[in-house]
Amino acid sequence: MRVPYALLERAVTAHFQGLGLSAEHARSMAAVLLEAELEGNLGHGLTRIPQYTAQLRAGGLNPRPTLRLEQVRPALQVLKADGAPGPVAGLYAVEALLPLVRHQGVAALAVQGAGHAGALSAYVGRLAGSGLVGLAFANTPPAIAPGPVLGTNPIALGAPAEPHPVVVDTSVSVVARGKIIAAAKRGEAIPLGWAVDREGQPATDPQAALEGSLVPIGEGKGYALAVLVEVLAGVLAGAVLSPDLPLPWASPEAAAKPGLLLVGLEPTAFPGYAERMARLLKALQAAGGRIPGWRRVASRERALQEGVPVGEALLEELARSGLHLKGGKA
Description:
single chain; alpha+beta; Ribosomal Protein S8, Chain: A, domain 1; Wheat Germ Agglutinin (Isolectin 2), domain 1; 2 domains; seven-stranded mixed β-sheet; 11 helices
């Protein structure tokens, strides 16, 4: 069924308020999760609500966190998140980073002690929408072959452009683990090349893939990128390493608190930025290239007009978590 966005937003916000979050923080959860859903990033959308719900109910996440911002250097901040859900801490961090970047020209903010942040596009996209170039790095529970020791460790960029910002959001594995979790919930096979099982053999069974390891993009190069993100988000910013993070299906009271590093730059400090960006996009389009982030905009606009498609299995899973959408009522 297709659910009108306004109804979905009210329902998700009310659901998280019912779990103890403030109205503001519940709106943050709805904003990040629904943005991913509307943009077609289903592994980080509605399907994540049962996980957040269980973690909040079990005490793995704090519904009433005290967010504490520390100014450690003129252009560096650390957000002590006090067990906040990741989207709550992530949007708070963006709002804190914006004035610092505008004042300093470049600044970084490390988030420590928050849950899974969801799609990093939510954060770099907001920075780009405010006229700044944004970067985001996050480490995640171990998933990448060999090992696994390293996580899928996503990296994201948001950059102002016309008519829409350029937004790149990708994990260093062939696919994000969320896509495999979503396939497992639907009972669907996954393509060869996404993952290997415990014995290192190519896997098409999503459950075997989740018990094994995900394949890095570009083999050794993808592994090196995972190390790069681990150093930035784990060693430097997060104070926690991927191998020390509980897996997504661990008991909900043991919710992972990965690291998140946000970096912002003021593009007007570099004369000619807008003109060079326009030339780049024109050249990419002339060569038949797609502009990262623009397809998300089209998907979002269609969902806002036609409603958000929600499958029967997901409706039932959400209902078991206390979020009822059937019948057009929230």
